[in-house]
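Protein: Phosphoenolpyruvate carboxylase
Species: Thermococcus indicus
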Amino acid sequence: MIPRTMSTQHPDNVFIPFFTGSPTMGGEDEVTEAFYAFSVLGIDEQMWDFEGKEVDEFVVKKLFERYGYFFKRKKLGKELRLTPRVPNPSVEKAEAKLLLETLEAIPRSADYARLFYGEELPPIFEVILPMTTSSQELNRVYELYRHYIAGKQYKRVHDIKLHEWIGEFYPSEIGVIPLFESREAILGAADIVREYLQGKEVEGQRVFLARSDPAMNYGLISAVLYDKLALFELQGLEEELGIPIYPIIGVGGAPFRGHFTPENVEGVLAEYPNVQTFTIQSSFKYDRTPKDVIKAVERIGESKRGKAQPVPAEAFEILKKYEARYSEELRALAPFIREVAKFVPSRRRRKLHIGLFGYSREVNGSALPRAIKFTASLYSLGIPPELLGLSALSERELEFLGDYYLGLYRDIEFAFRYFNPEAAERFPFLKPLAEMAGDYELDERHLELTTRVLRGEIEETLIVEAAGIRGFLG
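Structure follows.
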């Protein structure tokens, strides 16, 4: 069974989960969170993030010890999945050796499962490689596990082979799921996956496309259309190779990051019809009632995959001027984003993270926080990031792009509800947006809160209250 829903640890939630006693979730809380996602919300898969966070590498053992009655009925590795997201040594030099530790934990987890289930059922058999840019990176992880983790069991230690002494290393191979985050990697996804699959006998291949970082780097509309083109080309690769390709898309709560909320499940399913797995981030899980979350998860599980549609080259010609305007506006706003981001609360305990552009991500020469705090900061200023770059496009061009980005007008309307016209007084380049805002109904309380932030009253309480109104932190 290939999961339809993947619970993630992306902290875009406003409200703190009931099972944690602190505003920031740590390793023990995340073990409980995995069980809650599986047992209450009905989510199929938990992404276990070893990339950039303090997490518990004994999660499988703890799940079996604490919730054995549940996992006897719903088997981890069969009905349910736990999938680590590992560091990419090509980019994350400080975390590089953590890749080895993570891969070493896979056979150990299989030992726990063998004792628990009485059969060979590895609970972990795939890993997600972030910031993938080439098939070589994927093959390195694949071969590292195959030859140096599982393969070392046949080497001799003094007078005995390793597996004879400390037991078999199982599974013998793992799948590697590329996570494509940059424009070049997303648009080259099909070619990279084709190269990676050469010479391998696989039953299927999962491919993960990011939504948040591309939006932050290139603007909302570009992020959606780049992903949609990649999905169409991956569909063609599936037909070409005769191997099932199962896309995953990393959607969050804000329209800027995917607009994946219980209220908009139908919209996202229609936008990405051939996606197999959708990420369920923290806002989806904790900023709505469990009843609404469960109903939405069930709807995703019942849905059937459709066919991706092509995106014409003309769309990408229009995007060139959109991205240029987005970059100009972002550079002007960067100092203010950084200032407000200091007051956006953290919901997870993170290590120093070296991401696509470093921990303070550099976008068009400007150091910026990561996507969730970036989005939260702009909303707190009354400048929803969905609206940046829009003034470069004519109505005809927007209508044309809306034929391929189906939820474009819905997402723009949502964003304008939280736009503060006073922002145009401080940032004159936003005046075209202030003129457009007259066509939309603004949320009055959100307007009051963001006015105070714009005038220099930057406080966490204001940021959190505004987030509660719109239904997500970032």
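Remarks: The radius of gyration is 22 Å.
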